[in-house]
Specification:
Blueprint lengths: L3 H34 L9 H17 L4 H22 L4
């Protein structure tokens, strides 16, 4: 049997996951605007921008005392997912 504290914590995690889904949806809408403003598929991956994003997340994570390995992994996965999303949706505009 799972202890009551763990169940309470999991309920809070589930609520946080729901909040994250709302943020992801907002991010998708912004990426949709980016797609509309790109002329060529080759413009989807911007390595310089990715590098800047990851450096900034790393700095902010350190400043906020958040495990940098976790945030780096999350952002790399998110960037990859959104690049795939852009490729899937580029020709649909």
């Amino acid at each position: 049997m799972v202890n009551k504290n763990i169940l309470k914590i999991r309920k809070n995690l589930d609520k946080l996951d729901n909040d994250l889904l709302i943020i992801v949806k907002k991010r998708i809408k912004l990426v949709d605007l980016v797609i509309k403003n790109k002329k060529y598929k080759k413009d989807i991956v911007d390595k310089k921008r990715i590098s800047i994003i990851l450096k900034n997340i790393s700095k902010k994570s350190k400043r906020k005392k958040i495990d940098v390995k976790i945030t780096n992994s999350i952002w790399k996965a998110m960037i990859k997912a959104f690049i795939n999303y852009e490729y899937r949706n580029f020709n649909k505009k």
